[in-house]
Specification:
The chain is of the alpha+beta class. The protein is built from 19 helices and 14 strands. The chain starts with a helix and ends with a helix. 47% of the residues are buried.
Length: 557
């Protein structure tokens, strides 16, 4: 089926023909020979580099030696029991007698682990081999890794084997870690001398600085804890870019960036970091201008080639809009405006002549809204395009460029009408998705964000979806953020507060120091990677309770 762009291109006369030049602009890929932003990329990347922040360091030391306890009542069946202090159980004893020990630093940290060793008897006549295993959660260290069941590389697991040839030197493990717990195991040592570990420390790094207070002093202890864990989640993910997870993937994702930028507004207000990330995405976009979903920083900034996610590239536009609202930096917004236009053009190329999103019109790339298995995303993607059009039109209005996008809002209106006609069940009040007419929470939430339903209809859709036994529920805090947002838009403040307090508070109840990548209250072992220790226990898209609490204190405090 033809896209809306192709259809309009072949329509002669009337307003539809008048829309062609504006709607297509330079949108059809065939129009672009070579690199459409070739004249700008170098400058954009230089600006990004100039915005690179310094990292602030904090030194932490272990607060306790802990012993693992298998407990089916604990999260993922493991917890730690305090056994004593490092001074009495490690530093003063032969490590040959200790053999294996786990220390607890008492908090989540991102950075670099170091330790000292010292001779107790005679002199070192051979290397010492020690394995260090770092974990964000107890189960991460105590679940066997082999045979490897995960769908991602085993090398993501945070374990390092070191051969120590010079006892007495301070050694810092080069690999950056994200952890609370460190397990230390002796793998090999000569019988002809004895040694001890002598001090351990962790050099935590973040570009975030300062403490963030609750907006209202009378907040409940539970909401205060959710707030503080949210702040620490964001802090740990603020490195020289807004990382998605400091353990894994350790890169910049455009969808995570949008949520981090919202939280940053009410916390650390490091808008230069947002600016850096926006320019990196622009400078590293594809030759035909599409924002790639994620970026690596080292050895130099580069994108994950071929990782195109339309739902995420549209959120880059939303991040630029929010950045302009936060900073009044019109120079940056004008510089990057052509990139924002291009994302909408790419999205409109996926809309067919019936004003419906058609994934077959975009054979490359993917469409992400949640990790939940079996989720049909077609309806959510229809809504995301409508939302992206509206967001970019708001940006155009702020920049005085509304004439450049005059055709977009009529298309969005037609897409809303098509959504109600083809996807909306008026009897149940629910949007369905795909050939099997799947009902999911995310279909409802994104249609609410797109403005397809009024408040009364929005409340009905959310309540009906939650009451429907077959509804596909979210499996990540990323998806839950949009449900909370939709509840606020639907004028459901009590339900929004209850959801935030129950869902993110549930992670706090289960021991979260920072909020997790995946969480299902009914399934402690949910994982998109077939192995729960691979999950990130500090993940950027989980940090938004602090955004809701500060933006809507009348609801959440």
């Amino acid at each position: 089926m033809k896209s809306i762009i192709t259809s309009l291109y072949h329509t002669v006369g009337g307003r539809r023909a008048a829309m062609v030049a504006l709607l297509i602009g330079a949108s059809a890929g065939a129009v672009h020979a070579g690199d459409m932003f070739s004249d700008s990329r170098k400058g954009w990347l230089e600006i990004a580099e100039n915005c690179k922040p310094a990292l602030h360091e904090t030194i932490y030391r272990p607060v306790a030696v802990v012993t693992p306890v298998r407990d089916e009542q604990s999260f993922q069946n493991w917890r730690y029991r305090e056994a004593g202090s490092p001074d009495s159980l490690i530093y003063s004893r032969s490590f040959k007698d200790v053999e294996s020990v786990t220390v607890d630093f008492g908090r989540h940290m991102t950075g670099f682990f170091s330790f000292n060793t010292r001779i107790l008897e005679r002199c070192q006549d051979a290397p010492v081999r020690i394995r260090f295993t770092f974990g964000e959660l107890p189960a991460e260290i105590n679940t066997p890794y082999d045979p490897w069941p995960g769908t991602l590389s085993r090398a993501w697991m945070q374990e390092e084997v070191m051969n120590i040839t010079n006892i007495g030197e301070t050694i810092e493990i080069p690999r950056r870690m994200a952890c609370r717990y460190v397990k230390i195991e002796l793998l090999g040592a000569s019988n002809d001398f004895d040694f001890a570990l002598d001090d351990m420390s962790f050099r935590a790094v973040s570009s975030a600085k300062g403490e963030i207070e609750m907006p209202v002093a009378t907040a409940s202890d539970r909401m205060r804890k959710i707030h503080d864990v949210s702040v620490e989640t964001l802090r740990e993910c603020m490195q020289t870019v807004f990382e998605d997870g400091p353990k894994r993937d350790r890169r910049l994702w455009s969808g995570d960036l949008y949520l981090q930028s919202l939280a940053n507004r009410y916390t650390f207000r490091n808008f230069d970091l947002t600016k850096r990330c926006l320019y990196l995405f622009a400078g590293l976009s594809t030759d035909d201008g599409e924002v790639i979903s994620n970026i690596f920083e080292y050895p130099e900034p580069h994108p994950q080639i071929g990782s195109l996610c339309l739902s995420y590239s549209l959120l880059w536009n939303s991040t630029l809009l929010e950045y302009l609202r936060d900073t009044d930096d019109y120079e940056t917004a004008r510089n990057l405006w052509p990139v924002a236009v291009r994302q909408v053009e790419k999205a409109l190329a996926c809309v067919d002549s019936e004003y419906m999103f058609n994934p077959n019109l975009k054979p490359e790339g993917w469409f992400f809204f949640d990790w939940r298995d079996g989720l049909d995303v077609n309806t959510a993607m229809q809504a995301a395009i409508i939302f992206g059009i509206h967001q970019t039109a708001e940006l155009a209005e702020m920049l005085g460029k509304s004439d450049e996008v005059r055709s977009w809002l009529p298309v969005a209106k037609k897409m809303k009408e098509a959504s109600r006609k083809r996807l909306y069940d008026g009897k149940t009040g629910l949007f369905v998705s795909g050939g099997d007419r799947q009902v999911s929470i995310l279909s409802q939430t994104w249609m609410i964000k797109a403005g397809v339903l009024d408040k009364k209809e929005a409340r009905k859709a959310i309540n009906a979806a939650l009451a429907n036994e077959g509804t596909v529920m979210p499996g990540t805090p990323y998806a839950m953020h949009y449900l909370v947002d939709a509840m606020i838009l639907a004028d459901m403040p009590a339900e929004a507060r209850d959801l935030l307090e129950t869902y993110w508070g549930g992670m706090v109840d289960k021991g979260a120091d920072t909020f997790w990548e995946s969480y299902d209250p009914d399934d402690d072992f949910i994982s998109a990677y077939s192995f729960h220790p691979l999950n990130s226990a500090c993940h950027a898209w989980s940090c938004t309770p602090v955004y809701f609490i500060h933006k809507y204190p009348e609801i959440f405090i």
